[in-house]
Amino acid sequence: MHRRSFLAASVAAVAASRVVEAQQSRKINRVAVLTRAGAGSGQADASGHAWQAWRDELKTLGHVEGDNLLVLRYEANEDVGHIRQVVREILGLKPDVVFTPAQNIADAFRSEATTIPIVVIVSDPVGSGFADSLRRPGRNITGFSIDAGPETVAKRFALLKEVAPAISCIAWLAPRALVESRFGAAFRDAARAVGLAYVGAPVGSPANEQAYRSAFVQLLRDRADALAVTASIENLVHRRLIVEFAAGAKLPALYWLREYVEAGGLLAYTIDVVDIFRGAAGYIARILDGANPAELPFQQPAKFELVVNLGTARQLGLSVPESILARADKVIE
134 and which of 36, 43, 215, 298 could share a cystine (Cβ 3.0–4.6 Å)? Predict the structure, then answer.
């Protein structure tokens, strides 16, 4: 009897020892995340749910923070030198994957890293130098574009013109690198397609409040009477400043994210940020499981919603047509 107990205890001890050894030998994957300081979670913070969706998707796919996954979280301010400093610090740790939802941070990683897999959320991946093509990036970087092509831009401009038919010239507010990329020409063509003149309103670097105020002054000098605000992280960080400017200047404005309209903006034809962050987590999981980022296509937004702020329309002296209200996914009174 005592011998049986001894044998059982011995077997249990050996089994427990093997479990501990397995846990100790199991690889803990490391994912480094770099966002803008002062932005909370950046685009994710604005949606309220995107980071949670990001974590949940990783967990669903078998990568659990605190178990087999270590997430290294970093922030960088808007200074280019500080961004590069933090980027180099992260790369020195040799994480398994890097993730950032900020275009200027993604630019820094692109110029510094050639082997570590990087998942990004950016505008114009090909034109900005992140990929050889959307279908086959061909490099160590892949991810999601916040743009769905020129046709969607033209659709947005047409929606704004339905709400504000008197507008004649639209300004695109975005970081300088975007305004001066091939997207500038695409925006000009989209504006022309709906009978609008176009001016770029580039925001200089660092993209701080002063840089935005300078862009505001310039677009008014250029006689813009409408505003288009894309989903760059820089714009999002300054969304209240942008909305206040549009209201003060009496400019009908169209936004790429619903958070601007909830803050008092007029109109948004918005991408689904939660869906994009969930997809980014899926790409991270695939890379951790052995996928090659060079072979993972850059994805474009597939889900959109129309959000209208009737209170802001009234303040601008605009009457929102029933055709717009009938299509709206959300109407803010």
Answer: 298
| Both tokens assigned to 78 | 């808007």
CATH number of the domain where residue 203 is located: 3.40.50.2300
Q: What is the pLDDT of residues 15-39, one digit of tens each?
A: 444 444 444 457 899 999 999 875 5
Q: What's the pTM value of the predicted model, to 2 decimals?
A: 0.80
Q: Which tens digits make up the pLDDT trace of 138-195?
A: 999 999 998 877 778 999 999 999 999 999 999 999 888 788 877 788 899 999 999 9
170 and 260 fall within a common domain? yes
Which residues are within 8 A (CB) of 11 and not within 5 positions of it... i.e. 6 or more apart? none
Q: Residue 115, exposed/middle/buried by CB under 10 A (0-12, 13-18, 19+)?
A: exposed
CA separation, residue 5 to residues 2, 11, 17, 301, 319 (Å):
5, 10, 18, 63, 85
**Cβ contact 261:131 at 8 Å:** no
Q: Judge whether 130 and 147 are in contact, CB under 8 Å.
A: no
* Residue ranges making up the domain that contains 226: 150-271+304-332
The answer to whether residue 4 is domain-embedded is no
Distance CA 216, CA 198 (A): 15
Domain count of the chain?
2
